[in-house]
Amino acid sequence: MVVEKDPVRDLQLHQVLHLNGGDGDNSYSNNSLLQKKVMLKAKPILQETILQLYGKSFPECITMADMGCSSGPNTFLPIWEVIEAIDETCRKLNRKPPILQVFLNDLPRNDFNSIFRSLPGFHKKLEEEMGGKSGPCFIAAMPGNFYGRLFPARSPHFVHSSYSLHWFSEVPRIPLNKGNIYLAKTSPPGVHKAYLDQFEKDFTAFLRSWSEEMIPGGCMVLTIYGRDENNDSSVKHSPTIWEFFGMMLNDMVLEGLIEESKLDSFNIPFYGTLAEEVRDVIQAEGSFTIKRLESFHVSWDASIDDRYRDTMDKYTKGKFVAKRMRAIMESILARHFGDEIVDVMFQRFSIKIGEYMETVNGAYNNHVVSMAKA
After folding, report:
1. Domain CATH number, residue 203
2. In what helix (H) or strand (E) does residue 101 lie, and over which residues does it extend?
3. Which end of the chain is more exposed for a tag (fewer CB within 10 A), N or C?
4. Does 7 map to a domain?
5. 27 lies in which domain range?
6. pLDDT of residue 234 exceeding 50
7. 167 inside domain
8. pTM, whole model, 2 decimals?
9. Backbone dihedral region of 217: left (phi > 0), alpha (psi from -120 to 50 degrees) or beta?
10. β-strand 219-226 against 363-373: which pairing, if any?
11. Residue 195 lies in a domain
């Protein structure tokens, strides 16, 4: 088995992996509507979990951790959903709302400064819309890698994470995946095994850390980027968006814009898992009991405001999809291929993906799991 050396792997992944900060055209803040729609899809399960958690013991203070909070308009959305759920329960039971203590976690290079600048606006909105009836809400940052310990034992009541746990703690040693940057139809079996092994290792480490850190009976809601399993060989294969991006990079190799060795040594450091794989790791680790595990889809062009999607031509749609991907992938692509080629990559990708979406309705598969500490 040939294993190519990956220049990114020899760095700590958190040194090169970060979403685009600030509020510019290519920032995550301005290109995160798809992630918001994913959170809203998972909202009923989050709120159901909070109602069950609070209704069991009525703690005076609920401590919540949001793992992979990022920065931008989505950062406070899970907090808002938790506050709504608590408020509804307290009104029904005529109880005084508890204090909410929130720790926002992400890698140290996350744009926490933007979050801090947004806090006054969040508290003002909370006061205006809740009318001062919700309990006090204290928000702090907790930078660090969530695949290791971050909190004292038996501290948080509730843990939330959306679209973060598919990212690896490190780039695994992946066998030669010729012409691909991710799992593809042409990838050798060893490539899939390397990806799956790293996911199992990381997700197990995450669960083990929280088994020590979470209070007994504490709850967790995780939304994870995933994939569907299609074993029907009669169904035509449709590439994932990452497979499609790899095809575009192959074209750039043929035109001499990218070195072939550069392409062959690059593998995206995340894994779209199957729902069964999520279930298997949770059950094997043994610290948590699954309450619900469901899957849902959002379209590739969900990054476009629904009010304007139908009026856009294919190239404008392609630009929105490309900007969303750039907001999350630019740092690692620039580190591997060079800053000077990134603009060209996404200009070409926006055209190709816009044309492709005219005939194919691509979608991301997602899994949301609610569980309680056993």
Report:
1. 3.40.50.150
2. strand 99-105
3. N
4. no
5. 13-229+236-373
6. no
7. yes
8. 0.91
9. left
10. antiparallel
11. yes
Would you say 43 and 303 are in contact if contact means Cβ atoms under 8 Å apart?
Answer: no
> Tokens 């926006």 correspond to what residue?
350
Rounded Cα distance, 158 and 65, in Å: 6
For residue 2, is pLDDT > 50?
Answer: no
Amino acid letter at 137? C
Say which amino acid occupies 120: P
**Dihedrals phi, psi of 83, to nearest 5 degrees:** -60, -45
SS3 of residue 126 by DSSP: helix
Q: In what order do the strands lie in the sheet with 158-162?
A: 137-141, 99-105, 61-67, 158-162, 219-226, 363-373, 288-299
Q: How many domains does the chain have?
A: 1
Digit-coded pLDDT (tens) for 88-118: 889 888 899 999 999 999 988 888 999 999 9
Cα 31 to Cα 15: distance, rounded to the nearest angstrom? 22
- Asked if 77 and 223 touch (Cβ cutoff 8 Å), the reply is no
Give how far the C-alpha of residue 42 lies from the chain's centroid of Cα atoms, to the nearest Å: 13
Q: Does residue 8 belong to any structural domain of this protein?
A: no
| Cα distances (Å, whole numbers) of residue 76 to 80, 136, 293, 296 | 6, 15, 24, 23
Residue type, 66: D
Q: How many CA atoms lie within 13 A of 65 on its CB side?
A: 24
Residue 233 burial (10 A CB sphere; 0-12, 13-18, 19+):
exposed
β-strand partners of 162:
223
